[in-house]
Design brief:
11 helices, alpha/beta, three-stranded antiparallel β-sheet, 383 residues, binds ligand T4K, single chain
Length: 383
């Protein structure tokens, strides 16, 4: 075990505490803590403007956001989704009594592969739930074409995709709804939090009702809603975080470039992306480790850990391998070869604004040291 300072896969970016205190004083003075207060309204408007999207409904977190988005579009039956994601993606379907149908991913983006969607559509299919994994945009045009042809809804799990743009516009404008996460581990955090990006005022209004138990007014309940409201504390923090997020992404971009430069040329490693014509948020730094590398992905993960660098194997195990999903026909390994390969190869290296250049060099030096094991062995055989 290493005595060096541990480095985790991420660390939340926070404003100086003093800057938050005036916001807290306002909350304490007003005694408005939740239920759509002034900070909640201000953050919804500010996010709409910042992200370049028409309507934003703040939520308590992305998981409740996904559950609510599915409810709001009255999605039932079967929904096509990816096994290569955080488990909340599929859980949101089970919470709605919907059957997930897993479809394999594209080997280059690790997002749902549109070429495999049609074969999974049945008379019970009502929607597609893709994930912009690591913030890399899905093939939104191909997915929409299929959805239009089969009259399916599309809800994007955009938990990783805060601020991501492609072809000059926000990726959050695609599909019927997109769901963001503002969890502590995300590019933009409000401690816990999330939002649903809506195309029009009507869909936002339905979500606003659903996240408040279905109440329309004091005596009218129009749907079996849930409590999905963001508190004033989280919303106020979000306003402050919004002032910092561009700088935070800029530092992430530098770290991403440094990793790519320093890791280039090491046999058996591939950095995911970058994608053409895309403004990334650098939410994650996924590295694929293949058979040409000296160690397996898991051995590299343990090697880094032993030296205090805590990368993460996002997303291993696959969702389809968890007990509540593995009995589904679509969860069979033979149906998901690319996802299985990715789950066995990816390690996400630390990336967050406070990560120093020395931290990046230390992480890469550990990877290089692991790579040298094979180089040394091959050199010995050659002599
Ligand atoms: N859809 C997708 C595609 C998602 O990735 C997620 C969540 C969701 C939906 C659901 O969103 P939310 O309902 O959460 O809004 C983390 C997060 O808990 C989870 O939000 C995230 N995705 C997932 C990819 O990662 P863990 O179990 O890896 O988190 P944890 O607690 O091990 O944190 C990772 C590292 O971050 C720690 O080693 C240290 C650091 N950390 C974490 C927390 C929570 C801190 O420094 N401070 C903190 O407060 O799941």
């Amino acid at each position: 075990m290493s005595a060096a300072k541990p480095i985790y896969v991420t660390q939340p970016d926070l404003p100086p505490l003093q800057e938050f205190l005036p916001y807290l004083e306002q909350i304490w003075d007003s005694k408005v803590l939740t239920n759509g207060g002034p900070f909640h309204r201000r953050l919804e408007a500010a996010l709409g403007e910042h992200l370049g999207v028409p309507h934003v409904a703040l939520m308590t977190n992305a998981t409740i956001g996904l559950v609510t988005a599915l409810q709001s579009l009255r999605v039932t039956g079967e929904v096509i989704t990816t096994p290569y994601s955080f488990v909340a993606t599929a859980h949101s379907l089970l919470w709605n009594g919907i059957k997930p149908v897993f479809v394999d991913i594209d080997p280059l983006t690790l997002n749902l592969d549109p070429a495999r969607i049609e074969a999974a559509i049945t008379p019970h299919t009502t929607a597609i739930l893709p994930v912009h994994c690591y913030g890399n945009p899905c093939d939104t045009a191909a997915i929409q074409k299929i959805a239009d042809h089969y009259n399916l809804k599309v809800i994007y799990d955009a938990a990783h995709a805060f601020g991501v743009e492609q072809h000059g516009r926000s990726v959050l404008g695609h599909g019927d709804l997109s769901v963001l996460s503002f969890h502590a581990t995300k590019v933009f955090n409000t401690f816990e939090g999330g939002a649903i990006v809506c195309p029009d005022a009507r869909s936002k209004q339905r979500i606003d009702h659903l996240k408040n138990f279905g109440f329309v007014d004091e005596v009218t309940v129009v749907a079996p809603g849930i409590n999905g409201k963001m508190s004033e504390f989280n919303a106020a923090l979000g306003l402050l975080q919004l002032q910092r997020v561009e700088q935070a992404v800029a530092r992430r971009r530098e770290i991403d470039a440094m990793y790519r430069r320093l890791l280039a040329g090491i046999d058996g490693l591939r950095c995911l992306g970058p994608l053409a014509d895309t403004v990334s948020n650098h939410a994650y730094f996924p590295l694929l480790v293949d058979a040409a590398f000296a160690l397996t992905r898991d051995a590299l993960y343990e090697h880094l850990r032993c030296h205090g660098v805590h990368g993460r194997r996002y997303f291993y195990p696959l969702i389809s391998d968890f007990p509540m999903y593995r009995g589904l026909p679509s969860a069979a390994a033979a149906n998901l070869p690319v996802a299985h390969a990715a789950a066995a190869q990816v390690i996400c290296l630390p990336i967050y604004p406070a990560l120093t250049d020395d931290d990046v060099r230390r992480t890469v030096a550990l990877v290089e040291a692991a790579a040298c094991r094979r180089t040394t062995a091959s050199a010995l055989f050659a002599t």
